[in-house]
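Homework-ish question, so no full write-ups if that breaks the rules, but can someone show me the predicted structure for this set?
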Amino acid sequence: MDSRHAYFMKQALIMGEKALETGETPVGCVLVYKNEIVGSGMNDTNKSMNGTRHAEFIAIEQMLENHPRSLLRSTDLYVTVEPCVMCASALRQYQIRTVYFGCGNDRFGGTGSILSLHSDLSIDPPYVVHGGLFREEAIMLLRRFYIQENENAPKPRPKKHRELKTSFETSIPGSQASSPTI
Amino acid sequence: MDVETILRGVQPLVGEVVPIRSVQETRPVEEYADAYVAEVNVKTASKVIKALDSAFPRDSSHPLNHLRRFAKHNQIPESLRPTLLKEGYLPSQTIFVLIPSPLPAPEALQTLLAPFVPPPRETPLPLPQPATADPSLPSTSAPAPAAAAAAETTTPSTTAPATSTITLHTITVPMQPPLTPTQAEHWSSKMWPVVFNPAAPRALIAPPPQILSRVRDAIAPKAGRYLALAQAVAAEAERSGLGRGVGAVVVDPELEPTDEEETEASSWTDAIVAVAGDGRYSRREGGQPAPAEIAGGGSGPSPHRGTYDADWEGGPELHALMRAVELISSKRREDKPGSRRQKIRPVLYGLEEYFLQKSEVPLRGAETVAGAGGADVEREDAAAPPPEKYQKTTETEAHAIHLHHKEVEEQGAEAGGGAGGVGPRIRSREQGGYLCNDLDVYLSHEPCICCCMGLLLSRFRAVIFPRRGRMVSGGLASEPVVKPVPVEAGSDHPVEEEAEGGTEEASTKNREYYGLHWRKELNWRALGFEFVAAGESEGASAETGVAFHA
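A: Not a homework solution, just the prediction itself:
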């Protein structure tokens, strides 16, 4: 893997780690324009009481404070989990250049798992997607989150007997679009 | 225009609320696969099942419960009879067992079934099909390839009298449960006996019929009003130049007055908790003036609305649906005026402000007890039947959630309520408010796919938009509107069509139909409805206008 990609995905993972610390679903991302991070975000749905405040939206909001949206055409996204259907469509509307993600998202994934919004017919140009960068690290973040109980849910499900799984299957489910060695 | 004047002027749309069909309904998967059939001693049938289930455990993710495991002689489809019944056993002697995928190795299967071979023939029969039936055989063509395959793949032992060896025939079977009794009958007569279960597969295919019709009946009386208001909000957004002409109205069905409560004092707007208009031209990016400011300071509709240029489109978080969600969230969070979030996502329109302020006013009935304990509130809450949730949760979980809400409220009431703590129209986090749980959203247009997923993630109960508001870029419809093609249409207005742009036409024909409201793969579901205006056959659909994301 190109060390540049590794560096930016690590930054996304750090954002995910921060999300976990604050009780948010641990997904983090950074927006990179000309080798420089111009926006970063982590999930904010619990704190904001707004189910649409995903990491990608936070990062874009931050970027647009200092840059016009047309810059997104030459900007790449590094995100720990495959963008969901909502974010995959938003990224298309914002005309992002390339998306690099960690693990697939077989519940909501919008760039290959459930839908392929990056490449489907649309009124906006398609974007390129690469999956599988630090996939195991991204999955471990999610596992550490999901063994906790969700105190924000109206009726938390008890999870007393869950154990943290640390093994991985060799396949990369939900990332057909992936090319793990980039 | 004054808000009260706008509200008085809202004329309900006249028409009908129809459920949007799900992608599972409009694009049923017809998946077929090979399966083995073996003729076994009818007296050993239960042992056959035991032996098969212990040797080849079934794939629980594909239970295949719709396929009968056994078929009696008279249940064998006509086209399979020449192959399956040619051994000439009596119906009292043998029965046919189905071994569907994952297919075991034929040798292993034959060894396993060896103890259950048919008994010696009692009376050798001629071929069961009378000669007169033969001419009809070629016409029963559906599984003909399967029949041919069966002939080819039967083991060499078929030529010998089958007394000591099990013969495996390969047939083709449907892998998905039938959606209708007709489909079940069709498959049963052509492929293999199939069972139709009206309850089991349905929830993954479409909303359960009784829930769908109950919600439709509940929303139908006022849907025309709410949609007309959504259009009024849209008009305000367009007029201002701050957004495109798209509007959203969020309704809490729990706040709908019951028939007895419907008095002169109550207004048709009582159950509305928020409205929002599109605001895509309102945002400043990178320190530059917003598109609306560049275009002339918000006086009159934006010049950008006649075309689609991504650079002027703001982003989906400025769409009406997303703005409505954020307004609800700000109430749940109890944002202080002038907070950072309010600066980033400001309230833009008079109608929005009106309903936001209205949501500060405590509910009727709660006013009298504010600050005076909570006994009355408690009683009113207890009198209201627990509303239902139709999403992923089960019936019992749904009730538990609402009981939980009530407990929280009661606790709040017992603690003395506090300022605004009793019965607000939008519950705060402390009062058990959660995302957009159990709310309905009425939209002037079919939302873009981003907003569709946003409304699912926000846990709305239902989404309703006018069929005329369908969008090329929409994410809810799962099929085109089928209507007769007018022969001479358009011939007298070629100039107008030209003005609307040429590229849209092509995209209309090729639009995607995602049907996101009840897509089985997604964790969250909402009930989707279209409002079909009375006499709707001609008139412009938003699909043929400028293509943009609503």
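Now go work out the reasoning yourself. Hint: Chain B touches chain A through 59 residues (CB under 8 Å).
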